[in-house]
């Protein structure tokens, strides 16, 4: 069992700021309007930026369904961040009818 909390989509406001660690093509297809995008492979070189983003708040992290987040949270926590997983990832966000945008203005999807 994970030692990190799973935050249900329904517990987040539509304008929540959270970290999306999906790949560029996934982000381009559809993402939450206020999410910050740093692909998983670029997290280690962006830790200071991530710390600034989180401030003293809990940092909610998302991917497509949660698998990448579960592998990433321990290293973010070691960096001193208070982290949690967006339960169900962007699939759950989309299914809940939360706002999404795509990078090219087309109908947003979860890729």
Describe the structure.
By secondary structure, this protein is α/β, with parallel strands linked by helices. The protein has a single domain, classed as Rhodanese-like domain (Oxidized Rhodanese, domain 1, 3-Layer(aba) Sandwich), CATH 3.40.250.10. Helices cover 30% and strands 13% of the residues. The chain contains 4 helices and 5 strands. A 5-stranded parallel sheet has the order 1-5-4-2-3. Helix 1 (24-29) links the parallel strand 2 (19-20) and strand 3 (36-37). The N and C termini lie far apart (27 Å). The model has no long low-confidence stretch (mean pLDDT 94). Residues 12-102 form the Rhodanese domain. Pfam families: Rhodanese. InterPro entries: GlpE_sulfurtransferase (IPR050229), Rhodanese-like_dom (IPR001763), Rhodanese-like_dom_sf (IPR036873). This is Rhodanese-related sulfurtransferase. Keywords: Transferase.
Q: Beta fraction of the residues?
A: 5-15%
Query: Level of helix content?
Result: 25-40%
How would the global form be characterised? Answer: globular
How many β strands by DSSP?
Answer: 5
* DSSP summary: helix tally: 4
GO molecular function, one term: transferase activity
Domain Rhodanese: 12-102
Protein name: Rhodanese-related sulfurtransferase
Keywords: Transferase
């Amino acid at each position: 069992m994970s030692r990190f909390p799973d935050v249900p989509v329904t517990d987040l406001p539509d304008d929540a700021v959270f970290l999306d660690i999906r790949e560029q093509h996934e982000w381009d297809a559809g993402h939450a309007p206020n999410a910050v995008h740093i692909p998983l492979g670029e997290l280690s070189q962006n830790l200071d930026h991530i710390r600034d983003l989180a401030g003293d708040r809990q940092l909610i992290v998302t991917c497509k369904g949660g698998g990448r987040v579960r592998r990433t949270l321990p290293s973010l926590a070691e960096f001193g961040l208070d982290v949690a997983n967006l339960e169900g990832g962007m699939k759950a966000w989309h299914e809940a009818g939360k706002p999404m945008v795509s990078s090219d203005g087309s109908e947003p999807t979860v890729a």
